[in-house]
Design goal:
5 helices, 16 strands, alpha+beta, Ubiquitin-like (UB roll), 5-stranded antiparallel β-sheet, 2 domains, 242 residues, 5-stranded mixed β-sheet
Length: 242
Amino acid sequence: MNESYNNEIDVRVLFFGSARDVVGATSLVLSLKAPAKLVDATNALLERYPGLKRFGRSLLFAVNQEYGTPETDVKANDELAVFPPVSGGSDTVCDYRCPSDFFELTTDRIDVGAVARRVVLPECGATVTLDGYARKWTAERETEYLVYEAYESMALSEMQKLGAEAHKRFEIAHVGIVHRTGRLEIGETSVAIAVSAPHRRAAFEACEWIIKELKRTVPIWKKEVFQDGEVWIEGEGLSEKL
């Protein structure tokens, strides 16, 4: 449908995590009057699905795989994503590319050793690797398994932004991030981060910064499944430690 004033436009809306559970659908087509802003789409969705109001201001929106603000323009055939807190958004512009960097999502088991040794650069003296894995107990409640879900295209884009920003902040040579999606059994690796640098201190600092920012800005959600129920873990980036 062509977009013009006083006409309607159609946008595709995707739902993730507990926002999808509230709506009861993974996607739908939303009609809006043109010209439209993200706030118009937000209001329309909240009116149609009042259950989304429970997220308050923490509900996040992306337009064409970029975090949006209420004043972001929404045009015909745009892709709008709605999800619970990651718990933030990144304004970093990914204007740096390192040929040795890699950013991936996989449903296969992660070989942390292979990730750590995937890039060994002659100018580096250390690679620091983080192995984040599924734990059995959370707040004295026994976890049976985890399920990770990602807005894949945007998650990869946000990982690349993290890599670019890490190169700006720290004296490092390369960054590699591999994150699992799907079902994980207890003890299986959910995320492996490898950072190499000429000196180990920069590698340690960059690795710690990356995991904190990844949990804050990259659209990946974790569901913990217990014997007596399940729960989406939302907004974990500001408080949870691996």
